[in-house]
User: Fold this.
Amino acid sequence: MIKKLFSLLTLLPLALLADEAKLDTGDTAWMMISTALVLLMTPAGLALFYSGMTRSKNALNTYAMVTGAFVVAMVVWIVAGYSIAFGTAGSAAIQNFIGGLGNVMLSGISWSDLSGSYPTYVFVAFQGTFAAITVAIASGSVIGRMKFSTWILVVIFWGLIVYAPITHMVWGGDGALLFDAGALDFAGGTVVHMNGGMAGLVLALLVGKRAGYPKTKMQPFSIVLTAAGAALLWFGWYGFNGGSAFGANAIAGLAVLTTTVATAAAGVTWMLLEWMVFKKPTLLGIASGIVAGLVAITPAAGFVSVGGAFIVGIVGSIIGFWGVVWLKKKLGYDDSLDAFGIHFLAGLWGAIATGILAVNDKELLWDGPMKESGDRMGQIMVQLESVLVVGLWTLIGTVIVYYIATLLTGGSRVDADAEEMGLDESVHGEKAINV
Assistant:
């Protein structure tokens, strides 16, 4: 099943897939480098991006929420998440939604097994970094008021109940619901960003608003750290998108270029929007635009042209800006660090835009309406189906996970005194600034 799966997923020209069982050292090296790049995105890039935006009394807790999520999610992935996402279920009906448990603790996989042209173990590690960053994204919505113990349990259960099944449905190969439908998600627009952003919003609504929000002004700890985090995210994203070509090939090159184009265009767009609306272009805004562009291009990176990448990045930035500046204020929810506004909304746009802008090239597309008959409207409808299924699964699954974690920890929220003191000192016994 694993070899068959990767013959579908690698997105290489058919001539290169003819000898799929032969290890290619170039592909192997690129996939190991990509794994390291994606790993850098969470305990360095995302952690800095988030901790710089929060208040100084919660900066270390924010970093711990992201890094704690990363290490716990990686363990969960190895123990059972990979098997649920990429294993094979006994029943065809079950296989629509989840894989089996045959690869728990990676049983049944040898160090010498290949996935296409590189070791399966490398693919396991590569996909584990995706699992880890997805749940870490959601932490940005509940910073400053959720118990650390509750959060760790959310990470464990969410990885098994929400992330792994969604990964299976989109990327799980023959028999998986959205994969069979021909849904296009090159590197995780639905699997990662819509998923993490929606989970963040659900958790924020369930745990409640921060004390004093929105009347109390909550100054960022360090915008410089946030900007540095955005730069590290951009750097690591070349592994995120380029690695999703599953080899050192021309499609990886396409993904690297479209990622660069969309991200730069989105950064410029957010800067100009702030300049026009608020008369001052902020560094925080430029950093936010960069991340919005990265998110938006993720599902489309290996499917669109350079012109398409410009459109994806510009519109993704406009939608993210609208979500952060207007929608959050209008609806009144407290998404602390805008995980929903940037990741869900820009990811939603990117997923739909993939159907609108994908190049009609059989070497670039998975099986689906576009590849089979050039049916672009059919592909757009499949994209809409995928975002609906992912959104509903994440919504329902996150609610279930939240109440399980809350029950086991006696409540999800820190007490008022701890929140007032700040979670750095009250939860971790540390301070970001010692004076």
